[in-house]
Amino acid sequence: MSIKINTVNVIKKQLQSLPKEVLIEHCLRMAKYKKDNKELLNYLLFEQEYEEDYITEIKADIKTAFAEINRETFYYAKKNIRRIHKMATKHIKHSGKKETEIELLIFFCLHMRNCGVSFKESRVMTNLYQRQITNIEKALHALHEDIRIDYEEELEEIKKGLR
Questions:
Q1: Under 8 Å between Cβ of 134 and 80
Q2: Cβ contacts of 148 within 8 Å, gap of 6 or more
Q3: What percent of the chain has pLDDT over 90?
Q4: Quick check: 107 and 59 in contact, CB under 8 A?
Q5: Of 6, 30, 86, 145, which sits 20 to 30 A from 154 (CA to CA)?
Q6: Phi, psi of 13 (to 5 degrees)
Q7: Which residues contact 111 (CB under 8 A, 6 or more apart)?
Q8: pLDDT at 1
Q9: Which of 44, 80, 48 is nearest to 64 (CA)?
Q10: How confident is the model at residue 63 (pLDDT cuts 50, 70, 90)?
Q11: Distance of CA 107 to CAs 25, 33, 45, 61, 94, Å?
């Protein structure tokens, strides 16, 4: 027998009826039990207002991680690239902004292409790269035309990595 989980709408209504102190207790308890919750709460409280700095910080982390890739065997290089991708997507989810998603995915793809690991022979890595291009295109369609034009040139540059 499993416990029934309420919908987000029901949870929202319940949260609105709680006093401020109880809300704070619940947030802290959630942050204490899972690192992802703590990271999201940290973003919402401290990083959300400074999105450009947040993006710059994540880009620096991605760049550092690509510089530290273990190139001894393709297996380890592939694992490292997937770990970097997982880190980037986690931060994209925290932000929830399409511009952030596009910038980080473009940055990831450019570094993946130039990291010194030939991923074109690996179907898994080629598919990962292709999925990121698809994700960028989907996010671009959600943006206004004026903003979209700025990113389309970079997207074309990334697509060259598949050729």
A1: no
A2: 140, 141
A3: 60
A4: yes
A5: 86
A6: -60, -40
A7: 62, 63, 66
A8: 62
A9: 80
A10: very high
A11: 38, 32, 25, 11, 17
> What is the rounded CA–CA span in Å between residue 98 and residue 45?
20
DSSP letter for 121, please: T
Instruction: Look up the pTM and report it.
Output: 0.86
Which two three-digit tokens encode residue 71?
A: 């190139």
3-state secondary structure at position 34: coil
Residue 98: closest CA among 157, 158, 44, 55: 55
CA 81 to chain centroid, in Å, comes to 14
How does DSSP assign 47-114, residue by residue? IGGGHHHHHHHHHHHHHHHHHT---SSHHHHHHHHHHHHHHHHHHHHHH--HHHHHHHHHHHHHHHHT
Residue 128 pLDDT > 80: yes
What's the distance, CA 59 to chain centroid?
A: 11
Tell me which amino acid residue 90 is: K
Query: Residue 45 is encoded by which pair of tokens?
Result: 């409280």
Closest by Cα among 25, 33, 31, 85 to 61: 85
Task: Count CB-CB contacts under 10 A for residue 42.
Answer: 13
Q: How much of the chain is in helix, strand and coil states, percent to nearest 5?
A: 80, 0, 20
